[in-house]
């Protein structure tokens, strides 16, 4: 999600939004791997695919599916919830995200170059900021040659203060998805 579209208010209602999105997209599934835009992704054990469109793919560690047959939302999953959002964003560069963090009054904690599949350059940023009194820590990986942005984040409930710690608990899972992704040639639009 492009930083200009990433709203500070988004963090708090995200669980509700994810449930609605999952319902609109026909539910969640628990595959071992997913192919999207010539990216082959291995999901961590127990993770779920809850949204798949031409321009976005979303996965999470908990089943945040559509709920019951009558369309009633699912109950909040027990435990921590984290999610990763893969979006197709032509022309997005790491500087766009650095500017976003600065606008939020946040702090970039990690800013490093990556080389995915031994030849695809990417940039990883881990940053923290506060949104509506809720502290968070997130990671974005920008892959300009594929026009792909990956956002990894905790999904806190209102009043939660441990989102930065939850993020750190799942950092290896987030990085595992990124590092084991098989990137095919760019998809031509």
Give the helices and strands, then pairings.
Elements: H1 14-24, E1 33-36, E2 39-42, E3 48-53, E4 56-60, E5 82-88, H2 94-103, E6 107-116, E7 120-131, E8 134-143, E9 148-154, H3 163-180, E10 182-183
Antiparallel strand pairs: 1-2, 2-10, 3-4, 4-5, 5-9, 6-7, 7-8, 8-9
How is this structure best summarized?
By secondary structure, this protein is an alpha+beta fold.
Could you describe the 3D structure shown?
The chain is globular and about 45 Å long. Mean pLDDT is 82; it is low at 4-26. 21% of the residues lie in helices and 35% in strands. The longest helix is centred in the last third of the chain and has 18 residues, at 163-180. The chain is an alpha+beta fold and 189 residues long. The protein has helices at 14-24, 94-103, 163-180, and strands spanning 33-36, 39-42, 48-53, 56-60, 82-88, 107-116, 120-131, 134-143, 148-154, 182-183. A hairpin with a 2-residue loop joins strand 1 (33-36) and strand 2. It starts with 13 loop residues before the first helix and ends in a 6-residue tail after the last strand.
């Amino acid at each position: 999600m492009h930083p200009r579209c990433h709203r500070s208010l988004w963090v708090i209602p995200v669980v509700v939004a994810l449930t609605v999105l999952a319902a609109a997209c026909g539910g969640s599934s628990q595959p071992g791997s997913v192919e999207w835009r010539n990216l082959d992704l291995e999901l961590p054990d127990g993770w779920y695919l809850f949204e798949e469109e031409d321009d976005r793919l979303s996965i999470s560690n908990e089943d945040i599916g559509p709920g019951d047959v009558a369309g009633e939302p699912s109950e909040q999953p027990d435990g921590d919830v984290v999610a990763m959002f893969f979006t197709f964003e032509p022309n997005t560069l790491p500087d766009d995200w650095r500017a976003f963090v600065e606008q939020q009054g946040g702090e970039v904690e990690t800013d490093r170059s990556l080389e995915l599949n031994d030849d695809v350059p990417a940039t990883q940023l881990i940053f923290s900021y506060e949104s509506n009194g809720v502290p968070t820590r997130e990671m974005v990986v920008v892959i300009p040659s594929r026009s792909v942005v990956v956002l990894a984040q905790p999904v806190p409930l209102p009043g939660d203060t441990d989102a930065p710690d939850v993020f750190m608990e799942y950092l290896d899972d987030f990085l595992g998805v990124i590092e084991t992704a098989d990137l095919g040639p760019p998809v031509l639009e």
